[in-house]
Amino acid sequence: MSQNQNYQTHEYDVLVIGAGGAGLRAAIEASAAGVSVALVCKSLLGKAHTVMAEGGIAAALANVDSQDNWKTHFCDTMLGGKMLNNWRMAQLHAQDAPQRVKELEHWGAVFDRTKDGKILQRAFGGHTYKRLCHVGDRTGLEMIRTLQDQGVHRGINVYMECTITKLIKDGERISGAFGYYREDGRYVLFKAKAVILATGGVGKSFSVTSNSWEYTGDGQALAYEAGADLIDMEFVQFHPTGMVWPPGVRGLLVTEGVRGEGGILRNKAGERFMFRYLPEGSKKDFAETDEEAAKWVDAAVSGQKTEARII
Ligand SMILES: Cc1cc2nc3c(=O)[nH]c(=O)nc-3n(C[C@H](O)[C@H](O)[C@H](O)COP(=O)(O)OP(=O)(O)OC[C@H]3O[C@@H](n4cnc5c(N)ncnc54)[C@H](O)[C@@H]3O)c2cc1C
After folding, report:
1. 247-265 pLDDT tens trace
2. Which residues contact 35 (CB under 8 A, 6 or more apart)?
3. Which of 25, 93, 131, 259 is catalytic?
4. Is 257 in the pocket of ligand 1 (CB under 6 A)?
């Protein structure tokens, strides 16, 4: 590190901006390749949004429903995205997820178990089979704890409470990033051969959100200002089980797992109202009446049908 009177300068092979699941995993991979790695986060290490993930990690391990496989996971993902998804990303995700879950387990994550000792999987909205590997309703916490442990023991240098405000360019090439420490406003410059953006989402664009103050789309803005094109920015996940009232719980998420387990949404008149908002063409995939929903739940509980497309 060098210290100019106005700012510190650090030099690394790889700079990862963001210390959620994505950033930590990227930092571990870079470090495993033998290069020097810095990891920067806006809040404390371990506080990223990944911690809040409740329902679990979708991976076609087929531990509970033996018919499951990556191809069905891929189909579910494409159908969920109304075929607008980047199919290659969806394919890689479906193919690699089981390996990533096993890797987490190997690194010390303790998942809930089936009676015969395999990783337990639960039903979830949009998934044909029971596929969500979980740790109660605190899967994200276990994930981040595990990745953090791996990262820190590999010697990755972590810069906490440090907000990156600009990517530095050398001609057309990204050569680092500039930011400040939130604690006292000190400036900091990172020079790096490669910069990875993993700054999470844009949830704070909405007045009611489960996202914390950190999720202001910084990575997207940094990339855009540096000349990148942004695509698919309109695709934001809305949970129908987010709380809006009473005020004390506004923005809290009731895990989507409750719907996977057969929970049904009703309005204050007791009506199942979500069906009204389904696009034409997809109504056949969902239970319309209580009776139909009850049959689906029975089928799911008895293991004949595990689709959780009940609204
Ligand atoms: C309540 C809730 C429940 C969820 N449940 C599930 C679930 O059950 N299953 C599932 O698969 N997904 C779930 N998700 C979604 C999932 O948690 C996220 O998609 C995932 O955690 C995103 O990980 P990430 O690493 O991309 O970003 P994050 O975990 O959001 O991390 C972003 C990182 O970037 C840092 N950062 C941001 N801006 C800057 C900046 N300018 N400078 C420096 N650092 C910066 C932040 O400090 C943080 O460290 C849930 C999300 C929420 C909110």
Report:
1. 999 988 887 777 767 777 8
2. 12, 13, 14
3. 259
4. no
Does residue 147 sit in the same domain as residue 261? no
Domain boundary among 174, 191, 225: 225
210 lines ligand 1 (CB under 6 A): yes
Segment 240-246 shows an average pLDDT of 84
Look at residue 117 in the predicted model and tell me its pLDDT.
96
Q: Say how many Å lie between the CA of residue 201 and the centre of ligand 1.
A: 7
For residue 183, CA distances in Å to 20, 139, 163, 177 come to: 20, 30, 10, 19
Amino acid at 100: R
- Which range of residues forms the domain containing residue 219? 2-225
- In short, whether 23's Cβ falls inside 6 Å of ligand 1 is yes
**Tokens representing 91?**
């394919």
Residue 13 tokens read as 């092979």
Is any atom of ligand 1 closer than 6 Å to the C-beta of 53? Answer: yes
In a domain, 241, yes or no: no
Tokens of 136: 């109660």
pLDDT for residue 287 is more than 70? no
User: Residue 123 falls within a domain, yes or no?
Assistant: yes
Catalytic site includes residue 266: no
pLDDT tens for residues 187-213?
A: 999 999 999 999 999 999 998 998 888
Active site residue 259: yes
The residues facing 179 across adjacent strands are: 164, 188
**Which of 10, 16, 49 has most ligand 1 atoms within 8 Å of its beta carbon, as the pocket-test mutant?**
49
Please report which confidence band the pLDDT of residue 145 belongs to, taking 50, 70 and 90 as the band edges. Answer: very high
Say which of 145, 239, 250, 272 is annotated catalytic: 239
